[in-house]
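Self-study notes.
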Amino acid sequence: MTSPTAPQPADGEPLSALRAQLRAATLRPEAEASGEALADLSVVQTALARAGERAARWVEVARADKRSRPLIDKMLEQFPLDSAQGKALMSLAEALLRTPDPKRADQLIAERLATIRDAGVPGDADFLLRTGFTLLGAAGRLLPDVTGELSGELTAASFTKPLVAPVVRTALRQSMQLLGHAFIVGEMIDAALARSRSERDLGLCSFDVLGEGARTEADAERYLRAYARAIDSLAHQPAGATHARSGISVKLSALEPRYTLLQSARVHERLSPRMLELARAAARAGIGFTVDAEEADRLDLSLDVIEALARDSATRSWDGLGLAVQAYGRRAPLVLGWVAQLARDTGRRMSVRLVKGAYWDSEIKRAQERGLASFPVYTSKAATDASYLECVQHLFAARDSVYPQFATHNAYTLAAVLELAPAGAAYEFQRLHGMGEALYDAARAEVAALPPVRVYAPVGTHEELLPYLVRRLLENGANSSFVHQLMNREIPVAEVVRDPVSSLAAQSSASPRVLEPQALFGAERM
């Protein structure tokens, strides 16, 4: 592997100088950032070509293997989210479990089903009746565990019209609860651990306590207790090296309701001690402890907290401290350079989970609302994919101080990591629970020494699942999503595994469909 060519901080450069570079690069031009990625990757085109060939084989194998198809694939096939019907169904599913009153739930169902009808499903006055049984049949096919109740063998004549709404409501609630089992490992950490011991694919996990950011101090205290309980339970795993055991992911905004730059003093006063308490517990337990990534305007605060954890002498010999870095951020390589230097300065090896990114829509909208000079994230998928590969190179170049963890469900990305990895490098892959099984099964069948695959495993109640589930479905149901494309036989394999470097080089650096914030209203508000 060739070292990255993009300008990088010199070894030993003060962390304060690196942080200044990071702040200055928050809204760096997309052409500049993607140009550096193309320059880095131009020297590994042969390896990337091999990756494309390998990825194409895996897509063919995954498409042929019906047994490994996860529930999300079946659901997206039945209700594609690029269709009006799929979007209406998801908005219904997301809202239904938050609507406890039966009368309002029935009104919600009727409204959403009307949207499906208006989108092109033929119907008349009896549409609700017929659609109810259509959904029951679909639920029976998608959720075989309840085929006796929702089998699709029911007929309109079996019920009178007043019974339809309650039947549909019950069917949808049960469907969402069963979907929850496909995406949540357990409602409590002990149940999740028990399940991970009994299922081979869950043998190595990073557990995530589900929930949105804290809104009150009581929320933060509740999350703190939940994380502490989870770490205590994880301490009882069989003995082993840190990276050979299941660990935990922690969300900073869950532990501080005022997690913003304007409240930075409060963050240092309240959040850092809470994180230090949890990190020390994780070190005593001998498990990995990963700080999840959040929005771009919180990155500076996150790095403050991570630096405080890294400088804690009580955990200096522990190699489980880590963080997630989002490749869609235009300054992702600079973040990696900072992490590597922090690890060297503090005499420890840190973990980095490299992900594509989880807040793209909100980052774009927030930048446009604020009228910023540009965006903190890439606007095109090709640029994000190329940035991910650029970051792969940086992580391998810093393997003396960093343990890379590559989170991906993309066949090309998976194959590219294998091609770019130096001989003998220690690293792992990661995937979300309920996604990616077919791809990793195909890779494992061809690569005898495939690195460990850790599962990002949510823990929580079905009610807490909904925001998470809808985000995952919307992300992976989009036309550009690899998860969407993988099982869609109408999309040629060559299109699914297209080289992002070639795609990026052939297009303008920014997506023409995403207007820069200051261009959003043209001359209207100048």
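Second protein, same conventions, sequence then structure:
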Amino acid sequence: MYRNEPYGSNAYYYAAPVRQSYPISVSPYAYTPAISSDMRFEHFYPPYAQPAWSHHANAPWVHGNLEDTREKQQPLTFVLIHGAWADASFWNGTAAELRRKGHTVYAPEYPGHGSDPNKNVTHAMLTKSIADFIVTNHLKNVVLVGHSFGGSLVQTVAQQIPDRIKRMVFFDAFVLKDGQSVADELPPSTLEAFNQLRKSSKDDTIMLPFPLFRETFVNLASLELAQQIHNAISPEPAGPLYEKLDLKKFYSLSTPRSYLFLTEDNALPQGSDLYGWFPHMANRLGLFRLIKGQGDHMTTAKTEPRMLAQKIYEAGRD
């Protein structure tokens, strides 16, 4: 293997041997390499002893920064699905950045969230709402992105209208096994807390107490920002979190899929074989593209929308 290194504002290639290890995704179907955005695909042009770019006068990086070649993005159609304790405004900054790059972006609201006061909803109602939105708006070749709880909706929507979905992107999101509920993937202490919060509510909802929210959902935020985000959330309908889902059709789909993992996301335990986003749930996808970035569960969409938009694009492009 050989390393590419910057040279001024350009990039060049030289034949210095380096050790390189790539992450491996272990799926229930096969042992396959996860394709990661932070992999460096490295090149060598024998028998040149000098930088290879000097032999390629028309190469784009000879005339400017290599980053310039990445500005023009493949135009895509994104449908962004938010998670629990959020509404469609979660995507505002990210959607604006994606649109600025020339993409078509939709962030539909679903029942029991946003301005809808009715919390008596089911997972099937949420699925139908999003699937109907895609069909009614005649959307095709959709990159369907789900965050957190929204991952379970990516699964159910994709199996309802697979012909309209170009790629599925799970962003720190649940990837449930057939017959599971989201609640089944919570560690025992969290599940017990949710059960108690659900039992104490008058409308079958769960409201996250600030100490739990602050340490797990917005761990990178300042105290002031953490309080601001918490004050904006609404109680989450409990029913869809506990529903067991029939996902047999999802696991028969050949639709390409990606997993976007932010490395400081503490909403689920890290480093556990039994719980967590990556690799625990991501590996259920079989062959998938892995994209990593820095961020937590809910702060990053507010504070780093440009970075998040770029990562979502990397997850969604061909």
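Instructor comment on the second fold: The two ends are 25 Å apart (CA to CA).
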